[in-house]
Write a structure and sequence with these properties.
The protein is an alpha/beta fold and 399 residues long. It is 39% helix and 19% strand. The structure holds adenosine monophosphate (AMP).
């Protein structure tokens, strides 16, 4: 076992997630997280053979130090020789990258240019690439883009109702995100219903801290709710999702907000947190609603579920058939309450929840949660790391 593994790297602005995965089976040999990388709280924790270990990282506090610590851990467990490639999760691939791509100097330059569209993510992704190039000079590195799966959307889904030259000259359009997750759960669902993926029609709901809904026609993304940035669409943990754009002018012109304050408010202080005035964590809100009858928690969850249902219903305009609705992400995989609330507002689509199956589908279990006379809904745990490992290997085989 594990003769060949891919090291998957997902670099955030102050964190670095890593997994060593067998691309064929998805089995994880070692995984972990380095976090608080810009402060003296920087730590690296990892799990190997069911043992979780944690260690502080030493100055200078940065991604290179985290990668160096990871290399030492890989050596300690005699794993370095098993790594055949490195796959990087890259958030924004713009229109240029609809497929995984071997990382070259030119690709790095493009990822850097695309930082205009993802200023919080692409620069961090690049730091991860550079740190890995230093540490693993002999290994090929592949970029797998979060936007790539949505590159099949038709123009009517990705062009905004704005002057067209903003798209032509500045690339302002819907790109969508969570692409690897939507792709993974669609592929899993196709295998569960025993149909070739290119004959499958799904609406997938990735519900975590960030949330997105995607319509998948004959296995391809044809519509998605996140836009130029991950702020559009349904309401999320701390992000507002869709609002009337004029609210921004009202806040600036009438209420004296700066552009930066509006940006902060829409991304960090809105959504479940902003409405409930309690928490962005779905579990905490469900508890507060049930145990304390907390009105803010109830309203936030009501809005959250209604907007998801409304978006799913509207996405049927992109499809001519619908095999199933798929739930994934931390909330989609674990919250029976959210799934039930969403599906109960989709009875016109023929959705009928099976209460027992819905309650049973959690903690990493896949399962169908609807009755036998209902259109199907499935819970499918996502595994973006496996997709990145698999696509990295496939790309290298093609070359
Ligand atoms: P993710 O971004 O996919 O890791 O999802 C994180 C979110 O999943 C958290 O903010 C929680 O709100 C939510 N979550 C995790 N477990 C549960 C649960 N058992 N019930 C409800 N929500 C959950």
């Amino acid at each position: 076992m594990f003769t060949e593994t891919t090291l998957v790297i997902n670099c955030g602005s102050s964190s670095l997630k890593f997994s060593l995965i067998c691309p064929q089976t998805g089995e994880t040999l070692l995984n972990g997280l380095a976090e608080c990388l810009s402060s003296n709280d920087a730590t690296l924790s990892y799990t190997f053979e069911n043992n979780k270990q944690s260690q502080p990282l030493l100055a200078p506090f940065n991604h290179q130090v985290a990668i160096n610590a990871l290399v030492a851990i890989l050596k300690q467990h005699h794993l370095v020789d098993k790594i055949t490639a490195i796959g990087h999760r890259i958030v924004h691939g713009g229109e240029k990258y609809g497929q995984p791509t071997i990382i070259t100097e030119a690709v790095k330059t493009e990822i850097d240019k695309l930082a205009q569209l993802a200023p919080l993510h692409n620069p961090a992704n690049l730091i991860g690439i550079q740190a890995c190039e230093q540490a693993f000079k002999h290994l090929p590195q592949v970029a797998v883009f979060d936007t790539a799966f949505h590159q099949t959307m038709p123009a009517k889904a990705y062009i905004y109702g704005l002057p067209y030259k903003l798209y032509q000259e500045h690339g302002i359009r819907r790109y969508g995100f969570h692409g690897t997750s939507h792709y993974f759960v669609a592929k899993q669902a196709a295998s569960l219903i025993n149909k070739p993926i290119d004959e499958c029609n799904f609406i997938s709901a990735h519900l975590g801290n960030g949330c997105s809904i995607t319509a998948i026609k004959n296995g391809k993304s044809v519509e998605t709710s996140l836009g130029l940035t991950p702020l559009e669409g349904v309401m999320m943990g701390t992000r507002s999702g869709d609002i009337d754009p004029s609210i921004v002018f009202h806040l600036v012109d009438q209420l004296g907000y700066s552009a930066e304050q509006v940006n902060q408010m829409l991304n960090k202080e809105s959504g479940l947190l902003g409405v409930s005035q309690l928490s962005n964590d779905c579990r905490a809100l469900e508890r507060a609603m049930v145990e304390d009858n907390h009105p803010g928690a109830k309203l936030a969850l009501d809005i959250f579920c209604y907007r998801i249902a409304k978006t799913i219903a509207s996405f049927t305009a992109s499809l001519t058939k619908l095999d199933a609705i798929i739930f994934t992400g931390g909330i989609g995989e674990n919250s029976a309450f959210v799934r039930e609330q969403v599906l109960s507002q989709l009875s016109l689509l023929g959705m009928k929840v099976d209460a027992d199956k819905n309650l049973a589908a959690r903690f990493g279990q896949s399962g169908k949660i609807t009755t036998t006379n209902s259109r199907a809904a499935w819970v499918i745990p996502t595994n973006e790391e496996w997709v990145i490992a698999e696509q990295t290997q496939q790309k290298l085989i093609q070359e």
